[in-house]
Amino acid sequence: MKILIIDDEELLVKGIAYNLENEGYEVLTGTNGSDAVRLAQDPDVRLIVLDVMMPVMDGLEACRRIRQFSDVPIIMLTAKTEDMDKLLGFDCGADDYLTKPFNILELKARIRAILKRSVKQENDPKIVRGAITLDSQSRTTLKNGIPVELTAKEFDLVELLIRNPNRVYSRENLLDIIWGDDYRSDIRTVDVHIRRIREKLERDPANPAHILTKWGVGYYFKA
Fold first, then answer.
1. What pLDDT sits at residue 117?
2. C-alpha to C-alpha distance for 47 and 26, rounded to whole angstroms
C-alpha cells in the first residue's frame, strides 16, 4: 500500500518513511501543502499523514482541497494541543489526529487500524449510500429497497463512483476504466450512461443529489 507523508520537518519525514518502508509500505513524501494536494492525486495513495503547520499551504487548507477529489484517510500531525485545532482538522475532513512529539509505534498502529477498516469496506460486496444499495457479488441495485435494473456498464460506473465518494473522474478516466480502448474516441458515451443512471437512481434526475458533475472536470458521487 502506498502512503503519503507530508511535513516540513525533513528529518521527521525521513524517520517516518524509513519505519513505514520497513513495514512493507510504499512511501511518497512532500514538505508543504501544495505537495500534498499534488501527490494525493495519485490513485494508488491509500492513506495520508499530513502536518498542520507548514509553509506555502498549511495542512488544514491542503486537507480541504484534497477532500474535493479524494476520500482517502488522512491522519493530521500537529505540535498544538488545543481541542479547537483538532476540531478544525476534523471539520476539514481528517480521520485521525496525532500530537507531536509522538511514538512512531503509535503512528504505525493507527495507520494499520485505519487501513484495515478501509480494506474491509472496499472488500464488502454490499454498499449502502443513502437510498442506494449496491451488491457487487450479485450485481443488484436497490433504490429505497426497490430493485433497479442497470446494464452491465451502468452498474460498473455506479460501483466505481460509489466506492470512491467525492473523487472526481474525467470522462477520459471513466472510458479507460470502464470501457477500455473500445470507446476511447467517444466521450459522449459516458454522458449518455450518466444521464440514464440519473434517470434510474436519482429522485430528481434534472437536479441530481448523488451523481454530480464538476464542470470542466468530470463526474463524482457525493457522499
1. 75
2. 11
